[in-house]
Design goal:
This protein is of the alpha+beta class. 49% of the residues lie in helices and 12% in strands. The longest helix is centred in the last third of the chain and has 34 residues.
């Protein structure tokens, strides 16, 4: 198990399922969808660890599960590697990589990557129709504010774990 706890998404290409690396424990999800209902029906993974590959997409779109599993936006060079190589990379380079990302002012959390991309897309889109704008803006602000607060809390917890 790596020195610092981490959550990561792995893929089993033959069984076509996701395997979640949850702080050193492997859990098999029942289908190729990562959401809270799949997490509830997870089973311990008992197969060969040599057949697991780090998923290229570490983002979890379900906000409930994203709060539970704090996956990181890992560098492209480690995506697609086996579990044993990932554990070795995390033990040797994980702390320094995390520290560099945080010191650069960015968030290492994968959920922040999707949140920032969504924000940039909404800024670039044209204005909505006038009659729909009021209700959409009101709804969007309340949902975005709530999700931003959750993600800010997650980032604060991660910083606390890394630096203390």
């Amino acid at each position: 198990m790596p020195y610092r706890p981490i959550d990561a998404v792995f893929v089993h290409p033959e069984q076509r399922c996701y395997i979640i690396y949850d702080r050193g424990t492997l859990w098999q999800l029942p289908r190729m969808k990562i959401d809270n209902s799949s997490w509830i029906r997870r089973k311990p993974y008992t197969g060969k660890t040599t057949e697991l590959y780090l998923s290229r997409n570490q983002r979890i779109k379900d906000p409930v599960l994203a709060h539970r599993l704090r996956t990181l936006n890992l560098p492209a060079s480690v995506r697609g590697i086996t579990l044993s190589r990932f554990e070795y990379w995390w033990e040797t380079h994980g702390f320094e990589w995390s520290k560099q990302v945080v010191m650069a002012g960015a968030s290492p959390l994968a959920v922040h990557e999707s949140h920032e991309a969504l924000a940039s897309l909404t800024k670039n889109n044209a204005e909505p129709k006038q009659d729909m704008a009021t209700s959409a803006d009101t709804l969007g602000l309340s949902v975005n504010q709530t999700s931003k607060d959750i993600f800010e809390d997650m980032l604060a917890d991660l910083k606390k774990d890394l630096f203390h």
